[in-house]
Design goal:
By secondary structure, the protein is of the alpha/beta class. Helices cover about 40% and strands about 15% of the residues. The chain has an eleven-stranded mixed β-sheet, with helices on both faces. It binds glutamine.
Length: about 475
Amino acid sequence: MIETLRLTAEDAAGMLERGEFSAAELRGAYRTAIDERDPELHTFLTTVDEAEGDGVPIAFKDLISTRGVETTAGSRILAGYKPVFDATVASRCIDAGLPLLGKTNMDEFAMGSSTENSGFGPSRNPWDPDRVPGGSSGGSTAAVAAGLAPWALGSDTGGSIKQPAALCGVVGLRPTYGTVSRYGIVAFASSLDQIGPIAKTVRDCALLYRIVAGRDPCDSTTVELPQPVELPEAEDLRGLKIGVPKELNETEGIEPGVSEQVNRSLALARELGAEVEECSLPRSVDFGLPCYYLIAPSEASSNLARYDGVRYGYRAEGDGDIRQLYARTRDEGFGDEPKRRIMLGTYALSAGYYEAFYGQAQRVRTLIKQEHDALFERFDLLASPTSPTVAFRLGERTQNPLAMYLSDVLTIPSNMAGMPGLSIPCGLSDGLPVGLQLIGPQFSENALFRAGHALEQALAFDYVPERLR
Ligand code: GLN
């Protein structure tokens, strides 16, 4: 019996290499774990019976196109849709020999922070099934936390990798915009969407990032990485300057238990040799969220125009009138959140309001980028909590979209600036995981991995949920 709960992808790869078990046995062990624990957690939307590859298996968030395997982006409007091609990240995983376990649950079109917006029912947090796993990549993070997949890919537009990683006690990287291909990804907000790795350790994230990152001729916004991805080994933080933006650490709504664990990690960073100093992002935190909720819905309203009942997935019954077919399909196929955002985005982009809303938000976005750039003249990395709170209860925020939106108040500013961020688990508050967010300038993934790995060693967080130990 292979016990998947504690197994890292790196260890599994080593054991495969030494012939301790076969790739089929390893994949079988994850399938058994899925059969045992997923009925409760609902982290997968689809599992795959046959998959090629003699490496460590992987799960994909269900917005990554997989040839012949249903890809819904968590939406009923895409139910039954089987892409005829693989997303670039999927083919890179196939080329690296990673067999697919299945497709993970998510908020519809990645709009949400809890997976409760999924058209197929929510996922649950392996630390406490009455609580959400975060979102929108909550299926991927909960699957990794519960030992149902050694690693997974998610997507992060405003925080959808970092925030659920924090709530599930796993590691997640939102990469620098443009380092990972979006070809074949169901688009939400194209200027923000990035695919990134989710795993139990920082080294696993680095290994997976190495597989998927780099220029892709099919996505003109991608670039070649300036340096190859390094596997982190450092045990100290000597020479590293960490800025602690007070707005990201003292914003209203941060739970005391979250601050406590983050402060403990920062004290540890000092002991490891880092210089840790308070700093300020005066406008980014206040303006980040409102600016995001103009730009992301605007882009979404355009990206979601393609779901018309003709080209993909679900089609409503019609009476022969094409306009009615479009309208009915969209009315029946989309859930409330995409509808809310399509209305908001269409309004913000309309001729009379474009300058006042969308144009203005773009200018504010430039200011946010400049504020971050200025701090990175003085600091190598910035630190803050990833999420203001630990995992909340299912249903707690579903009636109040604004409360749900606030889940990302700390992850959105650096995303708006195109900068990478890593969330690592740094302790427990009320028995639930707390995430530490490390933010770096563009293309600083190696520095994030190094710092994240050194801290991870010192923190010695046990990523196996207490109730599963
Ligand atoms: N929670 C944010 C939203 O609802 C971010 C989602 C994401 O990063 N995909 O838009």
